[in-house]
Amino acid sequence: MGWSARGDDDASPPQWLLFGLGNPGIRYAETRHNLGWMLVDLLCERMGERLVAGRADYFRAIGRIGGAEIHVIKPTTFMNLSGRAVRQYLSIEKPVSPRVVIAVDDVAIPLGRLRMRPRGASGGHNGLESIEEHLRTTDFTRIRMGCGPVPEGVDMGDYVLEEFAPDERETVTALLERAADALESWVQVGAQTTMSKFNG
After folding, report:
1. Most buried by CB count within 10 Å: which residue of 95, 141, 174, 180?
2. What is the rounded distance in angstroms from the CA atom of residue 47 to the CA atom of residue 68?
3. What are residue 68's DSSP bridge partners?
4. Domains of the chain
5. Which helix (H) or strand (E) holds 172?
6. What is the pLDDT of residues 47-59, one digit of tens each?
């Protein structure tokens, strides 16, 4: 039986957990595959919090959005081992009534577009596949940030590990701001309103 992304104690105020996926190291810091890490940095800036090293393979900060407690976490595993860090966080930190949100890049979505869903398939994304494997569920929210399409003749693995081009950076900045706004909306007003406003 899989772990529940919605927690077992519905009477407890939820703790929101935003895991921004990426790859550790300077080599990958500004690449397409690290949009999740970039979103964590932006949220820390908005909340006035700093990331600190956790007790396993992650960095984290804890702040508030409105009246809700939110943990923002950077797994420090490589992308295809993200599930290990997510599971470690849940086991070690023991959040109360956790609501898990995973932020990832997505080459199937055009650059600058955003898609949020309360659950769903991995779509072949290695980070999501790892999380599904470790949690044994697909019942967690996803923020997919578009960084596609992959140019014809370019290997997808190479493409996501490239840095954004100079003429893409303004679009990336706007995308991250929109993703942060969408997360705040999801926490404060819920899924349906947020998806209607921000998806696409």
Report:
1. 141
2. 12
3. 65
4. 15-198 (3.40.50.1470)
5. helix 169-189
6. 999 999 999 999 9
